[in-house]
Each structure stands twice: as C-alpha cells, then as structure tokens.
Amino acid sequence: MAKIALLGHGVVGTGVVNIIATKAEKLFKETGEKIEIKYILVRHDYDVDYKEKFITDFSIIENDEEIDIVVEAIGDTEPAYEYVKSALKKKKSVVTSNKELVAKYGYELMQIAEEKNVNFIFEAAVGGAIPIIHEVRNCLKANNVNSISGILNGTTNYILTRMIEEKMSFDVALKQAQELGYAEADPSADIDGIDTCRKICILADIIFKNHIYPENVYTQGIRKVRLEDVDILKSIGGCIKLLGIARRVDKCKIFIITSPFVVFNESILSATNDVFNAVQIETDNAGIMSLYGRGAGSLPTGSAVVNDIVECVLNKGKTIYHGWNTENKYLLVDHTEVPMRFYVALDESYEKIKDIFEDIKILCAEEETVFITSKLTLKSLNEKLNNVKVKSVLRVLD
Amino acid sequence: MAKIALLGHGVVGTGVVNIIATKAEKLFKETGEKIEIKYILVRHDYDVDYKEKFITDFSIIENDEEIDIVVEAIGDTEPAYEYVKSALKKKKSVVTSNKELVAKYGYELMQIAEEKNVNFIFEAAVGGAIPIIHEVRNCLKANNVNSISGILNGTTNYILTRMIEEKMSFDVALKQAQELGYAEADPSADIDGIDTCRKICILADIIFKNHIYPENVYTQGIRKVRLEDVDILKSIGGCIKLLGIARRVDKCKIFIITSPFVVFNESILSATNDVFNAVQIETDNAGIMSLYGRGAGSLPTGSAVVNDIVECVLNKGKTIYHGWNTENKYLLVDHTEVPMRFYVALDESYEKIKDIFEDIKILCAEEETVFITSKLTLKSLNEKLNNVKVKSVLRVLD
User: Fold this and answer.
1) What's the rounded Cα separation, in Å, for the pair A280 and B10?
2) Are the beta carbons of A90 and A118 closer than 8 angstroms?
C-alpha cells in the first residue's frame, strides 16, 4: 500500500483524485501496490463524497510516517515551497505540477531529495501531459541536446491561433480566452511570457544541468503582436508563436529566451494550434524530434502527475534523477548579440530604407515596408533602425 | 565494464560503433560502467581501424561469458532469430532494431528473456530515433491507449511528399527515392506496406498486450496512389499518408490496418514530410499526443539502440518489460466492417451517381466525380460501387 497526501484540490488535484479512483486496477498492476490518497490538504473543506480525507493542517501530513508521497498541486510558491521542503526532509517523495516552484527552488529541492534518498519529480510542470522531461532524461542518453524550442503555454497559443485563423485582434482573442476559462482574469503570467519562461528554464536546467533562474532570462510576451503582421505572415506560409528557446551556443554558453517568433510551415511547431503544446528538440545523433500534446487540463495534467506517483512507488528509497551539478558553468549570452533573422515592419517607404538594409526579403512595400532580414544581431538591427519609424520587429525561428 | 557483441555491421551497426566511441564519457556517466564492443559478427571481414573485433562465428559470442548484451543489427529473420534466441537462452540481454524479427517472434523471445531474467528490447525497431515504445511503456501508466496511428515508413513518406509537393508521379518519385538511397532496388517491403504493418503490429502488441501477427492484418501499399487524387486533396487542405493504425473498437476487439489514408491539415501527421516518421496516440486521460522524428538512418537508429544498451546495463539481471500475457484475448475486426469516411473518385457523371450516395461532400464534378462519403463500411461502399466505374477509393482518417 502506497499512501499519498495531496496538497490542493483545484484543477490538477481533482484530476489526480479522479484518475487514482478510475485507474485503481491498472495502477495496482503497474506497481504491485494499492495507491491510496489518505489526505487532501484544503483551505476549507466542502461537500464531496470523499470529504473525510480533507484536512487543513499540513503538520498532520508531515508527521504521518505512513505517507510515502506528497503531491503538491497548490500552485504559487507560498506555502508550497515550505510544504515541499519539509516533506522532503521527512523522507517523503514529492511530485509536483508547479512550474513556478521548480523554476525558482528546483536546485535546492533536488539536493534535499538526494540527501534523503527520495524523489522530487515534476513531469506535469512542463507541457502538461507531454512526457518531455521523461524523454530528455531517459531517451536521449546517446545524444547531446543542442537546443530545445517549445510552445509551452496553451493560453497564448489559443490567442495566437484565433488571430491567425479568425483574424481576431489580440484584445478580442484574449477576451474570448477568458470567457472560455483558458485565460485568467489577470492574464499577465501567460500573455507576458512569464509562464513560458519558467518552463523553458526547467527544460534548460535538465538539459544543461545548470539552474537557470527565470529572472535572468529575457522574456517578451504577445501583447504587442499585430494582426497586420499575422496576416502578412500567413500569406507567405508563416505564423507567430510564443516560444521558449534554450540553445547551446558553444561549449560553455547558452542562449535562452522567451519571445514571439515567426515560424514557417515546415516546422511541426507551426501546426500546433489552440491550447496544444509542442516541443522540438535538436540532438546530435537522433536529429530533430518533436513531442505534441495537451499542455493543461485536469485529466491531462493529472495523468502526468499520476505517472510520476507510479515512478515514486516503483523507486521507493532510491533517488532516480539527480540534480544538476555545479561543475557545468554555462554563461547566458546577451540575447541582443545572437545573430538571427528578423521580420521588420516599418512606417517608411522602401526608397527611404533601401540603403540601410542589404540582402533583405521584401514581403510588402505598400503603406508599410515589411521585410525579413538576413542574419544579424538585434544590437546591429537596432542601430539600423535608429532613425526610422518602426511598427514591429519579430524574431524568426531558423 | 559492460561487454557487447554486435551482430552486423551495416547502416545500424556502424551507427552503434560510432556512437559508443564518440559518447564513451557520457555513457560512462549514465551507467557507471565502461561500455565496450568486444565482437562484431560479420560475414567477411574487411579493413576498418577496429577490424580486430570482427569475427564470423556466432558460437564465440554465445559461449563467451563476458558478453552481457548482444545487439542484433543483421536484419531479416534468418539467422537473426536463431542467434537472438540462443543469446537469450545463454542469459544475455538482446537489443535489436529488427522489426521483422520482433513482429514475427517477439512473443516467444520476450518469454525466453523473462525466464532468464534478462531483457529483450527493441526501441529502434519502430520509428527509428523516436522513443515511441518507451513512451507507451513508461509514460502512459495513468492512461488507456485507445488508438495509435503512425507514419512509420520513411521511404513511402518521402515518395508521397514528392507527389504532394512537386507533383511527381508515383513512378518518378520512387525512382528518385531509389537514387537517393531511401528505397531499395526491390522496394516492395516499403511501398507495399509490409514494413509499416510490422511496426504497427509491434505497437499494438505493446499497447494491447496481445501478439498480433502481420499476416493477419489487412495491408495495402501506395503503388496505386494517383497524382490526380493528391492534387484534388491538396486543394482542400488534405493529403495522402501511408498509415498503420491500431484502434480499440470495444473491450475485446481491435481494428488494425495498414493503408493509405486521407489526412487533413489539422493533424500533426499531415505536417510530417519526407523521411520523417510520426505517431499519434489517443488516450483516455492525456488526450491526443504525438511524437515526431527521424525514422531511419545510421545515427538516429543507432542512438535508439545505444539508449537500449544503457537500459540493459542499468537493469542487469532484471527483466524490465514483461511480455504480453495471454489473458487478453482481443479479436481483430474485419476491416471491411469498420465504419469510416471514404474519398471516392468515379469515372461517372454526378447525375449517374447522385441517387446511389446520400450525404456526400462533392469535391469535383468534371471529368470524374470525386467526393467524400459520410461514415459507412467498406462492405456497404462496395455494394454501392457495384455498377459504377471506380478510379480510386481511399480511407479518410477521422
């Protein structure tokens, strides 16, 4: 018998309860143990048919030696961080879907887990149901990962899809996303790229075995994405996607960024629509690989959490994933110094700009002059744009 | 030290040699052991800088107690089957990329591996570098898989992509694939769907824990795919892909087929071009998931083999994947009795056929009458088509 304490009973928590009930027999076959939720930590209890499991005092969980695994599904870092740290110190494995917690405190929490021979795992924190962390950790042992690029936030991808497919403005698409429950009343964490940034940092942590803190990563959201640019790009087989990207630049440097990018139709990322997430990985031996699936939702995220619970049950007393060591010291490169192509829309005539830019691909030369540059740094692009009226600048994914 | 014997030194074998050499340090970190290729079984030796490892007599491998792991990369089933069986009986784990072997003898070989507490694993046999078997086995423990659909053969996907993108006829595209080394001189195993069938059978074996033999699966290749149909479909946002599909129809019935299917652009499968492979999985909790990557090639396939070698080293003396038990007795349903939509091109006027078909979506009513039906079985479609001149019938993926 494996006894679980679940912290939180929101979207993810109810998914976990549901799956553990409906998949009891399958989970028993997988683990050889009955998995039982003993406690559910809530702020106030209310009426469900398992309300006898509700408790409001975390110390009951912490001090109950029967509890092997704590599932953290509260969100935010306070009090989640204190609870998780204290559970690990009491030799309980922790499964979480909380990307903010992992991005901020992952390094410290993995170290405690190692010291105590328990596990701290978090597949559901990135890409919901997509087993991206599992793949990077377990399936690429004969590869170096050179880069990872992902659509990691369903809310922004939903908004961008509506702009692309239905020519909605950003504001109208955001409002629709809020009405459908895909966006929060305060949508900043999603649309300003903060959520994507946390997730790409977690992936970079695992790939490069270096803790990269979100506050050190340039992060730009989708508030300023213009419908005009969406339309022009659509006509040439491209679209705008909010991507988190982490790329090894050389042996000791990483380029990491969250930003809207122009993606062309050859990429699987461009076919990732609505609330779906996708991740593209570039490796040295296996080449390019992608994973695609549901990035959020009660059952999809719950299923990733329950898969992690199974991992903890099967690996009791043994830390299966070790934290990033501190030997690898990567430097983050300044994003303005990384050469790439840019999509540029200027409120200027072609005549005015044609001597400033060489080797550009003109997309439109009517009211605005719109073009894609050859590879250059943002720094040198900005120098060129010094005396012209800029409408948009977007990075292009190569 | 883990000592390996490699059977075969072709495309996959050389990839394995290459990766074990270039990734020696990383593999040591992953396993805590040095991985060394002790023997390479070849028919005739020739000059490479490790030719001292070449042997031509399998009994040396079989009788060498130092060998923990045998990597079978010969292809075909004779003598591969005898070698693998004998290695397993001698308590050596076996890693293979040989789909024909697994599809035909997987059930028996997994049983022997279990009896001997060793492993028989074969990630590279399906989807090359894509860790599809790993995902189905390890990442979906909180899910039932309801169906799996895949582009599992790079050769046919390359040919179909050329037909779609460059309006090449099937014959011209096949010739180009042969010139580029993507298709064999005798291309039948690829273009007649035999290779895809083996792979979808292996995936079905794992998902449904029932050995399904390729000879029991309806298999149709791409020889008869017409450029006219490719063009009409392209104009409505669709394309033709050779798919292997295995779907749970009810608690005890499976529909499994290899056939060209019409795929619409909403699906990630339609964005899978050239020699890439992709698999789409439908689950009850995680929803739809896809994996995409290189389905063949020396390093991509080699990297999947080496990942399996690492699994064997880490799990010495312990069978990690158990064979399908015989409790689950699924029946295969007759493919002509499964309702689906069909794309139909007839050499008839719309007037002649309009009373035969209700509820169709007309795509073209010029020289040929082309339409997509509503859901019906092939059996009833064939009854309707009894007295009309048929140019093509294609299944539509829903």
Assistant:
1) 29
2) no
- Collapsed DSSP state (helix, strand, coil) of residue A266: coil
Which residues 37-66 of chain B have a CB within 8 Å of chain A?
A: none
The question of whether A199 is a catalytic residue gets the answer: yes
Rounded to two decimals, the ipTM of the complex is: 0.95
Query: Cα dihedral angle (B211, B125, B269, A203), rounded to 10 degrees?
Result: 110
> DSSP state, B303?
H
- C-alpha–C-alpha distance, residues A371 and A390, integer Å: 12
How do strand A341-346 and strand A67-72 relate by DSSP bridges? Answer: unpaired
- CA distance, residue B292 to nearest chain A CA (Å): 5
Contacts for A181 with CB less than 8 Å, ≥ 6 apart:
none
The residues near A265 (Cβ < 8 Å, ≥ 6 apart) are A237, A238, A239, A271, B271
pTM for the complete prediction? Answer: 0.96
Per-residue pLDDT of chain A (398 residues; tens, 9 = 90+): 999 999 999 999 999 999 999 999 999 999 999 999 999 999 988 899 999 999 999 999 999 999 999 999 999 999 999 999 999 999 999 999 999 999 999 999 999 999 999 999 999 999 999 999 999 999 999 999 999 999 999 999 999 999 999 999 999 999 999 999 899 999 999 999 999 999 999 999 999 988 899 999 999 999 999 999 999 999 999 999 999 999 999 888 999 999 999 999 888 999 999 999 999 999 999 999 999 999 999 999 999 999 999 999 999 999 998 877 656 678 999 999 999 999 999 999 999 898 898 899 999 998 899 999 999 999 999 999 998 999 999 999 98
- Report yes or no: A131 at the B interface, CB cutoff 8 Å: yes
Contacts of A302 in chain B (CB under 8 A): 142, 285
